[in-house]
Please model this.
Amino acid sequence: MAESKKEKKSNNSLFIIVAIAVAFIVIVFLANKRTPIDWITNYEEAVKIAKESNKPLLVAFYTEPRNEMTGHNFRRTYNNPKVKEYIETQFVPVLINAKEHPDIARKFNVGYFPSHFVKHPDIEKIFGPRQGHDPAGLFIKEIQILLDKLNEFIK
Model:
């Protein structure tokens, strides 16, 4: 038995709705696809790489379980493509779990999480901290201030 015009129209409408929903899901997925920063978790290795590449270190401290601010940084700020590009072109990125490496956390006098510091591998002076969560644009601006202080210091 042939479908009526009403049934065909209903099937076509359903197909269009499903196609739009699938397209929307694909677009949202692709828009939110993030490539995380290539963090180095071994501080000594990062210092060596920083010396070889002539870049300063960006040292980020966190703890597990992650607090709300650290969670925001991992989900939003660090996954932002502009933040990733900025960090990876300007720094050797180091991610340190303060509970696993309390000696390094003490060296940087870390008291809040997340905390970010800028450090030249050949200089003892540490610039920072930048504490807490910032949206991507503000994060870049605040870390750039620390980098500018380092560059001014080594002139």
Observations:
- The longest strand covers residues 57-62.
- The chain has a mean pLDDT of 84.
- The helical segments are 5-32, 43-53, 68-77, 81-90, 102-107, 136-154.
- The CA atoms of residues 4 and 24 lie 30 Å apart.
